[in-house]
Design brief:
single chain; 14 helices; Enolase-like, domain 1; alpha/beta; TIM Barrel; 2 domains; three-stranded antiparallel β-sheet
């Protein structure tokens, strides 16, 4: 697979000098609460991971852990503690030894602290690709997609708050609206109708985050269809373990199901393909890890699945990392990389999100191509 081959090249060529690791937790304000059927976040919680190559070079890497407890069960304070433990454990390791340590701890970390794993993985890959002068997307293939267009997610909120939400985000020029739903069919129908009236998108999708029973999901779609409104797809309407009924939803309504929580690993994708549970998946690095997300994309593409790429509540650091996966693979159709738009302040000096437009341009420089703004960089690395 492309990722394994390119990672092998990194492991051979990145200098073997020891590394220094740094951890900076941050609570960051957002424009509106990010509410889904499982719960709500009124601010963002991110842990920035820094890694510095010893030996007189200027190479450094930045990663982001973005725990999203309402979906993953992670606790921010616990993640800070675990990140600090990993920092102490691998400080002074080489690039290759650091990655090997992480891979050895992955199963344990993914039980409760998966985002911490991803944050360190991201920082190391940012450092490694910078050392070789590669843009990060080279790890994922040679497609070199330069631009893509993101959707905008409408969180669950009161219907009379949708206008205020759209006042914030309409200047970005979003044309595709992803609507979070609650699982209450009557309420959701009213919410969707008001959202479409206020925003007037060209296309829309629904995201249930496992909130529905099969009958309710079908009923909601049929209620919308009676008004001439059909979502382009319905993301994860059913419980994660209920795979078999997803195909029945499409058979009954004509609306494809996009699996998210049910599509965490490459093994999940193989099962989805072989059992024909759905025709579309949502891949997320913060859900699966960067390496596993790369495997998922390759498997899904070979298996004929449509692919969307999304994330948790992440800043432009992690989201641009995901943008490189889209750019390098060339097989991702839908871009749900919108959460940096929710942040009141940018955490970086420059990024695809600084232009405040739905059109995202993948950085052409080495690594992720996005670095923390000066004050946060100083807070993370100190005097080094």
């Amino acid at each position: 697979m492309t990722y394994e081959k390119q990672l092998s090249e990194l492991l051979k060529r990145v200098p073997s000098e020891r590394l220094r690791f740094y951890v900076l937790p941050q609570r960051l304000p957002i424009h509106v609460p990010f509410a889904i059927s499982k719960g709500s976040n009124s601010s963002s919680e991110s842990i920035f991971i820094g890694v510095l190559l010893d030996g007189g070079t200027k190479h450094f890497g930045i990663g982001e852990a973005a725990p999203f407890g309402v979906l993953t069960g992670e606790n921010f304070d616990d993640c800070i503690r675990v990140a600090s433990e990993i920092q102490r454990a691998i400080d002074g390791f080489s690039f290759a030894d650091s990655l090997r340590f992480l891979q050895g701890e992955k199963d344990q970390l993914f039980k409760c602290h998966r985002s911490v794993y991803v944050g360190f993985e991201m920082a190391l890959l940012d450092l490694g690709t910078k050392c070789l002068g590669w843009p990060l997307r080279r790890l994922f293939g040679g497609a070199d997609v330069r631009t893509t267009v993101a959707d905008i997610t409408l969180p669950v909120m009161k219907t009379n708050e949708i206008g205020g939400f759209w006042n914030v985000f309409s200047p970005w020029g979003f044309q595709f609206l992803k609507i979070k739903t609650s699982g209450n069919v009557a309420w959701d129908e009213e919410f969707i109708l008001e959202a479409l009236h206020v925003v007037r998108p060209r296309s829309f999708s629904l995201d249930g985050n496992q909130a529905y029973r099969y009958d309710d999901a079908v009923f909601l779609i049929k209620r919308l269809a009676a008004r001439g409104l059909l979502p382009e797809f319905f993301e994860q309407p059913l419980a994660k373990q209920n795979l078999s009924d997803n195909r029945l939803i499409e058979e009954q309504t004509g609306v494809p199901v996009c699996l998210d929580e049910s599509a965490e690993t490459a093994a999940d994708i193989e099962d989805i393909i072989s059992s024909r549970h759905a025709k579309m998946i949502n891949v997320k690095i913060m859900k699966s890890s960067i390496a596993e997300a790369a495997r998922i994309v390759e498997l899904a593409h070979r298996g004929g699945l449509r692919i969307m790429i999304g994330g948790m509540l992440e800043t432009e650091i992690a989201m641009t990392c995901s943008l490189h996966l889209l750019a390098g693979s060339g097989s991702i159709t839908y871009c749900d990389l919108d959460t940096p738009c929710f942040f009141k302040d940018r955490v970086s000096e420059d990024s695809p999100y600084h232009a405040q437009t739905a059109l995202l341009r993948c950085p052409q420089t080495s690594g992720i191509g996005v670095n923390l703004r000066a004050d946060l960089h100083a807070a993370l690395f100190g005097d080094t």
